[in-house]
Amino acid sequence: MRRVLNFLLPLIVALAAVSCVDEEEYSDDPRGNFEALWKIMNEHYCFFDYKNSEYGLDWNEVYARYSRQIDDGMTSTQLFEVLGNMLGELRDGHVNMYASFDQSRYWSWKEDYPANFSDSLQRRYLGTDYKISSGIKYRKLDDNIGYIYCGSFSNAIGSGNLNDILMELATCNALIVDVRDNGGGMLTSAETLASRFTDEEILVGYMQHKTGPGHNDFSEPEEQKLKPSSGLRWHKPVAVLTNRAVFSAANEFVKYMKCCPGVTVIGDKTGGGAGMPFSSELPNGWSVRFSACPMYDRDMNCTEFGIEPDHNVQLTDSDFAKGRDTIIEYARNILNQ
């Protein structure tokens, strides 16, 4: 309970600060909504300096460029397109704008890269007799390696469910934890699963909170600790499988697992999404979600643009034609050595 409180209290404080975004009045017209959105992001978005260093993002230049596109006679659809394009300059999958007729989104973080995952291939490995618990699919492969597929952290993962899964796979020599295409969800679910792979409390990263309107107004980094579960824990070798569609809470899960003993990460670089998202609202009622609290790995490296695997492996066309998943087979080879 103390861990939960330590995690929630800073978020409550940060959320209270975000809720004050609209204290300055803006008119409900194209110019007013543009100014309100730019200011919300300017004062509360958390990755300006990082993205300036990564690809030269200049938020003031973005203002000047998109301000010229605002016209009092433009329709709501036209305004939505311009504002959505402006948000796209941030290259952040956690930045979205919602209207009754559409949702702006930035998906290039995964769509510009190979999928490295196939449902049809996975069905060949899972077969028809796999088991499922708390949304997690699992079975024993024919070389006595356990296989777990966790495609989402959107729902809570029960402790009893994880006990049942690990008990079923206890006789396996090693374990594959496949989180490819996991777009995230609840950070607590990512922690719950990762806590089965350490016997000691370990430092897995850091988090900061916005403390003011300046781009560099942040709290001191706060440690993120992963505590071992009180339930069954896994002590044999583990391979975690990743691709570019691993995002947000799933990105954090990979960050945690890289700190656990006996874990090897195999596949493609993850998609990132290392900002805790919060929401605000424009004068016309459109809501906007954005990254407000940056998270880092245990070496204070930003993971907003993803985490590199220990072994970069791509799904090949030749293996696909043979019904083989290159990444799963590579993991099996590593684990069987």
Automatic annotation (TrEMBL):
The keyword Cell cycle does not apply. Residues 120-314 form the Tail specific protease domain. Keywords: Signal. GO terms for molecular function: serine-type peptidase activity. The keyword Signal applies. One of its GO terms (biological process) is proteolysis. It comes from the Bacteria. Residues 1-16 form the signal peptide. It holds the Pfam family Tricorn_C1. This is Peptidase S41. It comes from Xylanibacter rarus.
